[in-house]
Amino acid sequence: GNSVTQMEGPVTLSEEAFLTINCTYTATGYPSLFWYVQYPGEGLQLLLKATKADDKGSNKGFEATYRKETTSFHLEKGSVQVSDSAVYFCALNSGGYQKVTFGIGTKLQVIP
Amino acid sequence: DTAVSQTPKYLVTQMGNDKSIKCEQNLGHDTMYWYKQDSKKFLKIMFSYNNKELIINETVPNRFSPKSPDKAHLNLHINSLELGDSAVYFCASSRNIDQPQHFGDGTRLSIL
């Protein structure tokens, strides 16, 4: 079956530091890949997505590249802000009537 | 103009009671979901409906019964509540099964 592996947190960074949250996956076929963000007390929101190999998703300064050869979709941001403190979920969808598979979530805390 | 709204936001009740959580989406989406998120933020899908038809039914106790009166609504009824049911329950919707999901803000269920 499908699976998503992402680093366990929490990750604590100082403001303006570089962020990487690793995500690797196993799936049949050619899945679509997503990053969702969950701010405290809220539901998940789509942050970015990529639907085929070598696609780069980007939003709000975050980026992730769909790497089929390494089955990875690592999330990066060049300079984090306190307002980026949240839980980040990597997810994949292999299409059809398959459920979306979510990773365990990585909590990011950015300190001033 | 909330896209996915669920009520109530908080639900505190005693073991053995029966309760319902309502969800409505005004996005015109065909697919709706219920998720359970535990205290460690692990997200587990429970059910998914597409055009009022049940398409995903994970291993969930039959005390949990979803009902979709129309494709804009997906309610969750829980019988004989147990301590282990304490969690945050999220409703979500998507245009169809392989599109990004929009989440509500969650219902925090606490069993005394």
Question: What's this, in brief?
Answer:
The complex is a heterodimer of chains A (112) and B (112). Helices cover 0% and strands 50% of the residues of chain A.
What is the arithmetic mean of pLDDT of chain A? 94
Radius of gyration of chain B: 13 Å
Shape, principal axes of CA atoms of chain B? globular
Which word captures the global form of chain A?
globular
- Strand count, sense and closure of the main sheet of chain A? 6 strands, mixed
Which percent range fits the helix content of chain B? under 10%
Which chains make the largest contact? A-B, 23 and 22 residues
In whole angstroms, the N-to-C terminal distance of chain A is: 41 Å
- How large is the radius of gyration of chain A? 13 Å
Helix and strand run of chain A: EEEEEEEEEEEE
Structural class of chain A: mainly beta
* Strand residues, percent of chain B: over 45%
- Helix tally of chain A? 0
Strand content of chain A: over 45%
Mean pLDDT of chain B: 94
The total beta strand count of chain B reads 11
Sheet/helix structural class of chain B: mainly beta
Distance N terminus to C terminus of chain B? 34 Å
Number of separate helices of chain B: 0
Instruction: Sketch the topology of chain B as an H/E string, one letter per element.
Output: EEEEEEEEEEE
Characteristics:
heterodimer; A: six-stranded mixed β-sheet; 12 strands; B: 112 residues; mainly beta; globular
Write the layout of secondary structure elements.
The complex is a heterodimer of chains A (112) and B (112).
Chain A: E1 3-6, E2 11-14, E3 19-21, E4 23-26, E5 32-38, E6 44-50, E7 56-59, E8 62-65, E9 75-77, E10 86-93, E11 101-102, E12 106-111
Parallel strand pairs in A: 2-12
Antiparallel strand pairs in A: 1-4, 3-9, 5-6, 5-10, 7-8, 8-9, 10-11, 10-12
Chain B: E1 4-7, E2 10-13, E3 19-25, E4 31-37, E5 43-50, E6 53-57, E7 64-70, E8 73-78, E9 87-94, E10 102-103, E11 107-111
